Amino acid sequence: MKLYKDILVTAWQKTIHQPSLWIFGLFAAFIFGNAGELDRYLRFMNGIVSEGSVINPRFWLDHRWAQFVASASEKIITGDMTVILLMVGLAATFIWILIMMSISAGALIKAATLPNVRFVDAFAAGAKHWVALLVLFASGYGVVILTTVIIGGLISKLNVSAETVQQTFILVGSILFVPLVIVISFLIRFTAQGIVLKNLHIWPAVCNAAKMLKQAWLVTLEMAIVNFSVVFIINLFLLVAVGLLFAPQFATALGLETATSLDRFYSVVVVSGLVYAVLVVFVGAILSTWQWIAWTLLFERLQTEQPASTLLRWLHYRRSK
């Protein structure tokens, strides 16, 4: 565990002493979330087994997306200016966020290797590689989405009950997307670091990342587990802290025997929810910054040495006893 402890402590020191980098962490969090690969996998699996939004993989398998596009297209054709302006605004915002995601990832990778870096210099380093990074991120997620559509489409064609289809979704998703989503995210991280730090083009950077992952896949997986565990504990602590902060207000609202007690209770729920949301965004930006710096430090270590897996060292210790 010393390897991960050293990396995480060093990354935290860089993060806490350079708050100007947190804005990059805010945008970079859109790529993997603030808890890394395992968090992204859990969210992806939740999208497979639940119904709902556009980011739900099931959305792309049952033609809801086609209905959405058809409805929007019809209103645009009829000249509904409200819809047109809304779509243009959403498209512009989406493109801006994608560009900022790519710049932010590059900025954090570069900042991790420098003792002190100014916001402007980090931004310039990220802007230098934003096109390559955007292509990389889009390709990685494209592979996952394409695989989801293909596998999901095949499952949907099975001549079985809806319940069996749902169970098959969960089974195949659990087995197939565990290695797929996590491995692709590892490759994306190492490839992005190769692009920014070694000035590699995308394909040589992918080959370099694949070679690194092949040689140190267990160390990489352990790093992801440690990161996820630490961030999970922090998020849990944050949730408990907000709950304790508003506990007196909840108790007071529930204790009132008036017609306004329910309204007051709902007000407390809304306010506490808003406070929690703001804290999640703020803390999430810090954690995302910390994560990207930590993974870059691991990348640097793997370039110069071959650290042993904690699990392998433990097994070797057990056998030697």
How do you describe this structure in short?
This protein is an all-alpha fold and about 325 residues long. The protein is built from twelve helices and no strands.
Textual characterization of the structure:
This protein is 83% helix and 0% strand. The chain has 12 helices and no strands. The radius of gyration is 23 Å and the shape is globular. Residues 51-57 have low confidence and may be disordered.
Annotation keywords:
mainly alpha, single chain, 321 residues, 12 helices
What's the SSE blueprint?
Blueprint: H1 2-17, H2 22-32, H3 37-49, H4 64-77, H5 81-112, H6 119-128, H7 130-156, H8 162-198, H9 202-215, H10 217-255, H11 261-304, H12 310-320
Helix pairs in contact: 1-11, 2-5, 2-11, 3-8, 5-6, 5-7, 5-8, 5-11, 7-8, 8-9, 10-11
Radius of gyration: 23 Å
Strand content: under 5%
Number of helices: 12
Alpha-beta classification: mainly alpha
Low-confidence stretches are 51-57
Distance between the termini: 20 Å
Question: Based on DSSP secondary structure assignment, what is the total number of beta strands?
Answer: 0
From N to C, what is the helix and strand string? HHHHHHHHHHHH
> How many separate domains make up the residues?
1
Largest sheet: none
Q: What is the 3D shape?
A: globular
Mean pLDDT: 79
Helix fraction bin: over 70%
